[in-house]
Amino acid sequence: MSKNPKSGAETAASSSNFIRSHIEADLAAGKYVTRNWSGKPGPASSHAGAAADPAKVRTRFPPEPNGYLHLGHAKSICLNFGLAQHYGGACHLRFDDTNPEKEEQEYVDSIRDAVQWLGFDWGANGYFASDYFGFMYEAAEYLITSGNAYVDEQSAEQMRASRGTLTEPGKPGPWRERPAAESLGRFREMREGKHADGTMVLRAKIDMASPNINLRDPAIYRIRKATHHRTGDAWCIYPMYTFAHPIEDALENITHSLCTLEFADQRPFYDWLLGKLADGGLLARPLPQQIEFARLNLGHVVLSKRKLIQLVDEKHVSGWDDPRLPTLAGARRRGYTAEGFRLFAERIGVSKADSWIDYSVLEDCMREHLNEIAERRIAVLDPLKLIIDNYPEGRQEDCFAPNHPQKPELGKRAVPLTRELWIEREDFTETPQKGYFRLFPGNKVRLRYGYVVECTGCDKDAAGNITAVHCQYLPETRSGTPGAESVKVKGNIHWLSAAQARAAEVRLYDRLFKAAHPGSGGRDFLLDLNPDSARNITAQLEPALATAKAGERFQFERHGYFVADSRDSSPGMPVFNRAVTLRDSWVK
Ligand code: ATP
Ligand code: MG
After folding, report:
1. Atom 18 in ligand 1: which residue has the minimum CA distance?
2. Does the residue 527 lie in any domain?
3. 368, 510: one domain
4. Which of 298, 399, 421, 550 could form a disulfide with 569 if both were Cys (CB 3.0 to 4.6 A apart)?
């Protein structure tokens, strides 16, 4: 285990990978040194006379503000911002808000918040695709007048039929060869709201027989009489994502446009479009280039937006920040750390081939960082009374527990010891199996940071349930005194003074799905939900935990890492969420 996980922001980009090699080859060739940048996105003309772009590498993270960010986005964020940092460049946060119906300000806010929480800063480079609607419209008109686009008035059904299949070429439709002036007139009518949704679209004119279906005259503008969250009713036509995205990259001087593998088939269109607009003088060369990498697939997790929405809407979870959800809002509330994510992004790297990452890889990264930062505390999760029969009633003494075993500078705190204690129910048995070294009649164990005690027996209720355990303590064995080593024991258990401990709600979270690949083989993914993914218990906590602040993380000794819930904790009354156990309990 590394003692000091380096800032993942640095290292995500520093381990060698194919994207890095690509960027370094471009840098060595001086590919982007001739670009000018006025500090604001815009067409070629707006950078004329501006100085050379000081950022040799510009990347972007382009979320659509139609949902909460998830762990897959975290990979993309760490990659894009990490590379920009590594090469002294810039990474833009750009909201791809070309779809008026589904987008909301709430998502914009939560996305900004999540990116910042991960430790990244886009500085002045925060943009919206909708800022470029004017330019996109001009670009579309240019394509029409230059013979590279036409308005098609076929029905959606007809267009689908004439598009062909993977094995059959498509056929040109009846509007394909109409005069540019006629298309331009129609397009202007579309923009003026003279036509109903779905009656016509603007299509790029490329090649209906192309083996790549994406080049068979893709739609680039459609009519949508909808109010947009930023532009209101200024527009009733909206650019298609595949048309908008390359233009956004170019206007922002992006050098390397990283996206997931499913966009590989779109790259020829990306290059075609930007090439045409550069030929027409609307954009400046060198143009951005698209590079694809494998998306994150994480075992025991669903990352599809549709499925996440279903989990929230059907109340299988408590909301977008349910600590079991793979959203960044949920992970944060769960107690996961930004450093843990950056470490994870570095560890999984980037590749060209799809693969599944075991969830334990993410948990190990969280453990590694939490081990560094979390102070130790004591909690008894399944309390059982232990009575020290030879300890005077009414007496209380302080034992001293280190706040962090590897960081003595963090000091120790007092944990009060009294005659009646709470211990874990599983730390006592009447019938010990071989290798059980904890409490059973006749055996001695150490009360961690306190005394060695010898177990003498237990009390039971009428039903035979154990209600209390009895023991005798050995006064000369107090931890930290010369007598501590005088009696050797194999067991060492944690405990709390029953008089001083505080009862509190603790949520023992586990994986939301019990199957590694939820919903695989066409099965309903909801059938794979883990019925034990949240267990709420009343635990006993050491007094020092009463003042825990919302969001504060601790290691509960022998149990795992816990965080004071940011939503349900109140001053003096924290509620704790388990982030991760100390060890992986999922057997492969
Ligand atoms: P949608 O289906 O709504 O487009 P999306 O998951 O692609 O969903 P976006 O907001 O478009 O959501 O994603 C923003 C960026 O995050 C994109 O560049 C996308 O490639 C990247 N991204 C999304 N999911 C993953 C993933 N699982 N692994 C890596 N990157 C991802
Ligand atoms: Mg997307």
Report:
1. 259
2. yes
3. yes
4. 550
Residue 586 token pair:
């999922």
Q: Are residues 381 and 415 in the same domain?
A: yes
**Can you give the pLDDT of all 588 residues of the chain as single tens digits?**
333 434 433 444 456 799 999 999 999 999 999 999 999 999 988 998 999 999 999 999 999 999 899 999 999 999 999 999 999 999 999 999 999 987 788 899 999 999 999 999 999 999 999 999 999 999 999 999 999 999 999 999 999 999 999 999 999 999 999 999 999 999 999 999 999 999 999 999 999 999 999 999 999 999 999 999 999 999 999 999 999 999 999 999 999 999 999 999 999 999 999 999 999 999 999 999 999 999 999 999 999 999 999 999 999 999 999 999 999 999 999 999 999 999 999 999 999 998 899 999 999 999 999 999 999 999 999 999 999 999 999 999 999 999 999 999 999 999 999 999 999 999 999 999 999 999 999 999 999 999 999 999 999 999 999 999 999 999 999 999 999 999 999 999 999 999 999 999 999 999 999 999 999 999 999 999 999 999 999 999 999 999 999 999 999 999 999 999 999 999 999 999 999 999 887 654
- CATH for 518: 2.40.240.10
Helices (H), 67-170: 71-86, 105-117, 133-145, 156-162
Nearest to 496 by CA among 440, 443, 556, 551: 556
Order of strands across the sheet that contains 576-581: 375-377, 553-556, 560-564, 576-581, 502-509, 534-541, 379-380
Kindly state whether residue 3 falls inside one of the protein's structural domains: no
339 and 433 inside one domain: no
260 lines ligand 1 (CB under 6 A): yes
**Whole domain around residue 196: which residue ranges?**
145-241
* 169 falls within a domain: yes
Asked whether residue 109 is domain-assigned, the answer is yes
Nearest alpha carbon to residue 423 among 482, 469, 368:
469
Catalytic positions, written as ranges: 64, 295, 305
> Which-ligand-closest: CA of 328?
1
- CA nearest ligand 1 atom 16, residue: 73
The number of folded domains in the chain is: 4
